[in-house]
Recover the amino acids of this structure.
């Protein structure tokens, strides 16, 4: 029995070693393919970006099989980063979906071999209507390459698959090339975090990209007092607004300081209610702008040394709102 157990351990260790060896080989092969892709980028990339950026229509992405799956991902990435795009299935295109492609569009057609017969109707349709077509293929001399406006060449470096058959390295290179196009277009268009949030309002990502102005308390919700007021008034305002603070402004409406629950504890005495708020307030409080992201507000609150739970939101020196750490929690950021 002991001998059998020892044999099983040896077998398990051998299998683990083989698994790691195969994993490293696969990763190395795909890295090698990406290095070839990187080192062979040329002017055709800029030409493709010119077509994509200047189109008055949409970017139509198409491909068959694994290339089709990548095309769907590519179209989704374009759409979420400021380039209107959608996927057209080559088979469905031959049965009416060619009508989805307009003369002002640009087509990206993906085929590693460049000989996918299912793409032929799309190629001919683009030719007849003078619709620019960008081919992504390893073979510029293929049917796809010869019938395209320009070719973005994939590395001809074989597959990581031990049979050399299953699309592995080639699909990785295609996905990366699609990301290159999307990111370069973002750079060209000056696509901002605010633009990104408009397309990603849901989930954690939407929360991270939410602005302070979207959740701040403003108008009558703001707890504010003039610097000449007494602490008795401050206690009343803090109780009414229930935000744990009151902002202190001068006669011009500029924010001069803040009084928080912590300040009350530090100043607790029988004479507190008769003190002027200007004597109790923390001067030059931390503030933030309304266009800042909520995640930035959280960072300011957490990195003040002792931590704070409120930030006044200002334009210039005038308060336009106040944000509490609980508002950040509700937004899903803090």
């Amino acid at each position: 029995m002991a001998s059998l157990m020892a044999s099983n351990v040896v077998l398990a260790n051998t299998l683990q070693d083989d698994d790691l060896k195969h994993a490293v080989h696969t990763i190395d092969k795909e890295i090698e393919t990406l290095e070839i892709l990187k080192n062979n980028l040329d002017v055709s990339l800029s030409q493709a970006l010119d077509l994509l950026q200047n189109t008055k229509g949409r970017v139509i992405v198409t491909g068959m099989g694994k290339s089709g799956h990548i095309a769907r991902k590519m179209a989704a990435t374009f759409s979420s980063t400021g380039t209107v795009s959608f996927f057209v299935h080559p088979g469905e295109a031959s049965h009416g979906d060619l009508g989805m492609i307009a003369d002002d569009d640009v087509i990206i057609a993906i085929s590693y071999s460049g000989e996918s017969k299912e793409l032929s109707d799309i190629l001919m349709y683009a030719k007849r209507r003078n619709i620019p077509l960008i081919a992504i293929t390893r073979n510029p001399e293929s049917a796809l390459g010869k019938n395209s406006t320009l070719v973005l060449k994939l590395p001809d470096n074989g597959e990581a698959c031990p049979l050399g058959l299953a699309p592995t390295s080639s699909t990785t290179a295609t996905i990366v090339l699609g990301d290159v196009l999307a990111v370069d277009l973002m750079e060209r268009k000056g696509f901002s975090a605010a633009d990104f949030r408009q397309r990603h309002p849901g989930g954690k990502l939407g929360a991270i990209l939410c602005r302070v102005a979207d959740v701040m308390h403003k108008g009558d919700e703001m707890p504010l007092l003039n610097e000449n007021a007494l602490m008795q008034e401050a206690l009343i305002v803090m109780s009414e607004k229930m935000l744990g603070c009151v902002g202190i402004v001068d006669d011009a409406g500029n924010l001069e300081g803040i009084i928080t629950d912590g300040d009350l504890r530090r100043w607790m005495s029988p004479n507190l209610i008769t003190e002027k708020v200007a004597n109790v307030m923390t001067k030059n409080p931390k503030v933030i702008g309304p266009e800042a992201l909520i995640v930035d507000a959280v960072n300011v609150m957490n990195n003040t040394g002792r931590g704070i739970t409120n930030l006044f939101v200002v334009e210039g020196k005038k308060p336009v709102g106040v944000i509490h750490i609980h508002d950040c929690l509700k937004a899903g950021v803090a």
Remarks:
- The chain has two domains: 2-191, 212-331.
- The longest strand covers residues 318-324.
- The two ends are 56 Å apart (CA to CA).
- Residues 2-39 form the longest helix (38 residues).
